[in-house]
Write a structure and sequence with these properties.
single chain; alpha/beta; Immunoglobulin-like; Jelly Rolls; eleven-stranded mixed sheet; binds alpha-L-arabinofuranose
Amino acid sequence: MTARNLLFCSALVLASWGQAQENVITVNAKKAGAEIQPTMYGIFFEDINFAADGGLYAELLKNCSFEFPDHFAGWDISGKVTLRDDGPFERNPHYVRLAPSGHRDKHTMLENHGFFGIGVKSGEEYRFSVWARVPDGGSAKLWIDLVENATMEEDQKLGNVGLDISGKEWKKYTAIVKPRRTFPKAHLRVWGDGKVTTDLEHVSLFPVKTYKGHENGMRLDVAQALEDLHPGVFRFPGGCIVEGTDLETRYQWKNSVGPVENRPLNENRWHYTFTHRYFPDYFQSYGLGFFEYFQLAEEIGAEPLPVLNVGMACQYQNGDNAHAPATKEGLQQFIDDCIDLIDFANADPATNSWGKLRADMGHPAPFNLKFLAIGNEQWEKPFFDRLAIIAPEVRKAHPEIKLIGTSGPNAEDDHFRNGWAAMRELKADLVDEHFYRDVQWYKKSMNRYSDRAFYTKDGPRVFAGEWACHDRGKKYNHAGASIYEAAFMTNIERNADLVHMATYAPLFAHVEGWQWRPDLIWYDNLSTARTASYYVQQLYMLNRGTNVLPTVISLNGGSPAANPVPEGQDGVFASAVLDKDKNEIIVKVINTLEKASTSRIDITGLKLKTNVPAAADVVSLDCSNYDAENMPGKAEVVSPKSSTTSITAQKGTLSLSPTIPAKTFQVFKVKL
Ligand code: AHR
């Protein structure tokens, strides 16, 4: 071989070797495929990890109505404070009496600790409210102090305000307190001038600035994090709390509506379920109730998806005991709960008492409820028998509502398969699947919804209702695990004809009050952190598109396939959508490898006009720092970054040639 030939051959080998290193992603834009449901990517809320009281719900005081089993839980008392039980709210009868101390220099007072303290911000206003009376007549002065107990300053007060109470009748009083400093762990002190006896009930403190300004509202930064996701569906209120450890302590939506002062306290099973994360003062005040859930869903632009009990307490905790009888009579209350809830959400206030209650609470227009899930993590005959009684009754009353069943807590076992078979038979519209799994499971499950022998189009659609990828053992929000969530979601997206909803879980966690992790959004008393998983979800929600575009990948010169990555391995994953409304093609590419991937994205089948786009917008989420975690009060270490990449055009094809860095999720947007 001559030196010239040798050079030529080496060049060829190098060229083909170079080519073989390139992954080619081909998107066929000729024909828009399956519609992507507006509900496709959403959120799942459960009151776990102090998600409601002490979290999303902006009430800053704990045990406002003195109804905790320890009636003074959350309160310090001094002087002559007594508990009484003939108060103005029949379902919360307890209140406190502050009597004169009997001495000028002794004081009667109450002090609330909030949830891990009370977070207050300098310059913000806080609305104190209380139901009060002077039982002997006349008037009394109350002092409301926000205090920093352990300060070295002369005065503990961060802010204070006075309040005049008068008359023997119970009345609601309000006053605004403005702290002069930001402090995460304030306490609220209420004390009298010590001259006359004063009765107090439902003592409350809210920031004036809540999400959308509602008085019984949501914490602004926490709710804003939800709005910024742009979720399509909002599942609530659980989770296991829907089931309860026993039926008496299940979530009962009817107790969560009407005046907030009269909503009875419920136990929260996350108070005691994990003894290594035990929170004896964790209860459900129901201050965040079904009216507030529906209102929030509307305000963040998501379809509400309530989950109601199917007549069964938690099967994990009870086996097949502790359930309501599997007869129409035995389940009547559960049937009524479903039908009445649909009426509460949608019925005309003029003709329906539940619709009237909704209107009285401030929302005469319907909430347009379309979906209802019955049962959370239930399995086998006890569940199937009960759903078979409840579902037809609900359908008879409300055929317009789509009903969601469940395949139980696991995503691959016999209960799961039997659950799906039963849901097919019962003609559920969707089936709720749960999979909290580690990285290895996700690597093996990247084709889950492409299994068309199991997921068939003549059956219910899929609702991946609770899922998250976590590192084995330690369950921190590792950025390195979130990259597998992004990769897994390409399979959800490619199978949008079958998968109609997917909601990561759990949604929230308080840094001082969590029982379960990883979680999507973390907070302390003053700030919120959006995790890498949050940004994965957000990138899908912001780039949902309207229709799937068929996409194949050729890895390293191999044959093109929707997902050519061998089961259990790392690689490059992709999916693409058309957004008909924005006239945009969006390609999502995830590189789970430890090294960068040289890629080419060919968008074929286009009718290119003369004015072809010269560049695509790119958003990148770099998850290569495996242990990186965004946490409240610390600098954000993982976040999406924007850039552009150039486009070349040739014969109906637009080509992009990005290098996808190791462990990175990239979204490419091409405006047509
Ligand atoms: O999200 C935490 C729990 O996980 C939910 O309550 C339950 O549905 C699942 O087991």
